[in-house]
Design brief:
The protein is α/β, with parallel strands linked by helices. It is about 40% helix and about 20% strand. Strands 6-5-4-7-11 form a five-stranded mixed beta sheet, with helices on both faces. A five-stranded mixed beta sheet has the order 14-13-12-15-16, sandwiched between helices. The radius of gyration is 23 Å and the shape is globular. The structure holds zinc ion. The site of zinc ion has 5 residues, from loops. Zinc ion binds next to loops.
Length: about 400
């Protein structure tokens, strides 16, 4: 009697292929024998799966392991040159496009300022031009392009590839996947910026072996990537993690937010809150635009108003995080995005605010750190989303290219 159909066998093989590739990603360099022990698969199955991954150029042989007692064995690791990902971070006031390899190293990048008041058409055609530059670079170098991936400051519909709502851009229902797959012919991915950054931390950064952590994207807005029980937590509609739009302030001090609500957390700990505090603390009301970088430089020069402005935003950040700490008991909270340039002033006050307002027993279990990727966490995250997809379904990658 046959219990398994051919389709079942193909499915099991795809799952095993993914298991072996993920194991190599996490623990390389590994030999075939070590892979067999770690995955529980038999040696001949592992050898056949490894051949398939080598054939798709997703892994390569990296040298001989001559230490230990066993026979010397060829070691395997992820092939950084397997292919490249074009990542796009659609900030509110900037656009960044970067090309990264299969292990998350940037090979090429461009950042340009964007006008939040510009029309959607203008901004999207600005994005398209940068993507075309990246594609030209890839063609010139002969890179295989795995995909084009967007990290966006809002809620997304992963199935249809839509940007549903970006409060700080006031954009609604943009069919990002359709627009850019039509214009580039590439496979297009889209993800919320904080979720994307959480994936970057999971695959390449400070959270590689953590099951429960929260990434906080702090910039024009405040977004959260909830990584719980070993995976990105998306909620029913995929919108989970909109931490910045929870109200932390009761009347009569509620500031209005772009999302339409009052007293939202991000209004007290985002980029604008630092600039607003800086203006109100300074006696000479200088004209002209004030930037986060200027406040950071003033702080470096010992300007008390600048330091206090950053610290107040940090305390407000900590108050909000205290709620998340109590609810999720994360092992780590990683802060990234544009505000991380002020990290040395921000982090101690975040820590202080969190410890003051979270339950003490839970707070001691949570480490708060800055992202190693700083302002680039979401840009790298765009690439990480595609890498994760390939680790999950390596069988979809062509053998020849
Ligand atoms: Zn809001």
């Amino acid at each position: 009697m046959q219990y398994f159909s051919t389709a079942d066998h193909a499915f099991v093989r795809e799952m095993n292929l993914s298991t072996v590739l993920r194991m190599i990603h996490t623990e390389a360099p590994l030999s075939r024998a070590q892979l067999a022990v770690k995955t529980g698969l038999n040696k001949s199955t592992v050898s056949s799966l490894v051949e398939e991954l080598l054939d798709r150029k997703l892994i390569h042989e990296t040298g001989i392991n001559s230490t230990g007692t066993g026979r010397p064995a060829m070691l395997l690791e992820i092939n950084p040159q397997a292919g490249v990902i074009i990542g796009v971070e659609l900030g509110v006031d900037f656009i960044a496009v970067a090309l990264s390899d299969f292990i998350g190293k940037f090979l090429w990048r461009k950042n340009v300022p964007a006008d939040p008041a510009a029309s959607q058409e203008n901004t999207l055609s600005q994005v398209l031009e940068l993507i075309q530059d990246a594609v030209l670079f890839c063609n010139d170098k002969g890179y295989r392009i795995f995909g084009l991936s967007f990290a966006v400051p809002g809620t997304v519909d992963l199935n249809d590839g839509l940007l549903i709502f970006a409060p700080n851009l006031n954009w609604h229902n943009i069919p990002v996947r359709r627009i850019f797959s039509e214009r580039t012919g590439l496979k297009v991915f889209i993800e919320n910026d904080a979720n994307a950054a959480a994936m970057a931390e999971h695959l390449f950064g400070a959270a590689q072996n953590l099951k429960d952590f929260i990434f906080v994207f702090a910039g024009v807005g405040l977004g959260g990537g909830l990584f719980l029980n070993g995976q990105l937590y998306r909620g029913k509609g995929g919108y989970a993690g909109e931490i910045g739009h929870t109200s932390i302030m009761a009347e009569p001090f509620q500031l209005p937010c772009h999302c339409g609500n009052l007293g939202c957390w991000e209004r007290y700990s985002n980029q604008e809150s630092i600039l607003r505090r800086m203006r109100s603390h300074s006696e000479d009301t200088q004209d002209g635009p004030l930037s986060l970088l200027a406040v950071k430089q003033a702080a470096d020069n010992g300007d008390r108003n600048a330091i206090v402005s950053i610290e107040e935003a940090g305390t407000a950040m900590g108050i909000g995080l205290a709620g998340l700490v109590n609810i999720f008991n994360p092992e780590k909270i990683i802060i990234g995005g544009p505000l991380s340039i002020t990290g040395e002033y921000l982090l101690p006050s975040i820590q202080h605010g969190m410890e003051k307002y979270a339950m003490a027993e839970i707070a001691v279990q949570t480490e708060i750190t800055l992202s190693e990727f700083g302002p680039d966490a979401s840009l790298l995250g765009a690439a990480a989303i595609v890498v994760d997809e390939i680790l999950a379904s390596p069988a979809h990658i062509e053998r020849r290219w």
